[in-house]
Fold each of these.
Amino acid sequence: MSSDTCQSAYCNAGWSEVLTHMSPYGYANFGIAFGLGLSVVGAAWGIWLTGSSLVGAAVKAPRIRSKNLISVIFCEATAIYGVIMAIILANKVKKPDEPSSQLSDDWDWAGYYYAGYGMFSSGLSVGLTNIASGVSVGIAGSACAIGDAQDASLFVKILIVEIFASALGIFGIIVGIIQSNSCTFPIAGLEG
């Protein structure tokens, strides 16, 4: 080993050791962060896509400015889905009844890790679904603004496609809620 390598017992061997030794509370909080953060990224990306096209197309046809703002609202809904899921997940994180530096030997370790991993996967799936929803709503909203500037009869037709794209975010939050239903952090040791 080289001299700059840590020789202490508290050094980790790499990312695999960090990830396998991380607290379930850490996984749960990362799930909350990914669910909220990726949902906001999806909303921002969608607003950027649809907003830039809306502003550009409104130069040619100023009448489209107000009615095409519905596309921006659909994009913003994906961020709201992330906020809702973050609130649901945050309310599931419970601390033990008796605070101590170490949990007792009769602790429900399987339930403890199941709750952490389940909340992580729930938040991650909601966040990734909302990125996809935000981008697809943004692309459909961009097409709606440009199409409406050319032909006003296209607005309602493309708006239907935009509603279906927005439904991806609703499906994501439903799946996230189903995933997180059984995630309950134990607060006391198992009954002997």
Amino acid sequence: MKRGFSFSLPVTVVVSAIAFIYFCTVFIFIDRWLGLMTSPGIMNAVAFTGVAVMCVFNYGFAIVTDPGRVPSTFTPDIEDSEVPIHEIKRKGGDLRYCQKCSHFKPPRAHHCRVCKRCVLRMDHHCIWINNCVGHANYKVFFIFVVYAVIACIYSLVLLVGSLTNDSQNDERQSADSFRTVYVISGLLLVPLSVALSVLLGWHIYLILQNKTTIEVLGPSIFGWICPTSRDIGNGLRFRTAYDGISAASTSK
């Protein structure tokens, strides 16, 4: 399901940064180091363009794809033998019900204050895609981060290679004319490479642990910087250690 498009300043900043980095990488770093008309230059330009296209493609899909709506007819079936356990409220023990949306919430669904609705398997609301990261767009978001990390590191290597080549050829006067571009690119690529690598590592950990950001860090974004959290979810009705124990006891 696709969602409507609306103007977002963070998204505009990301698109502008992608365009700037792509232009500098292909037409400055590769050209000055390898030459765009040489075989190594063409190969690197094609490879980087491919990574950039995949990055933009997945970024666009992460923006326009609806993260997942809770069906208005959803009602937990406590007598369903295939669903032996249900998520309940911490206080009172009732089945999870959203007062704002006026319907029950499936496991791992949360109400987003920004989107003003419940989102299936909500991970977090990301301002950089102007959308929630949830059940339907988590994969494209993750793949976008993977390609973004590759693109940033790739561009950074080409930047360093271009600078090294200029210094070896003693092209000081020519290099001075591109100094501003090198400085701006470096200030963009270094923190982006670090931040996106950390983000990628974090989501790899979440995937391996079968968890979401909200379950590990808590529902409040202000508590995400804290080293501990009492809001770790137990993965009800998702593959967890419980399923292994239950299967083992059944086979005996």
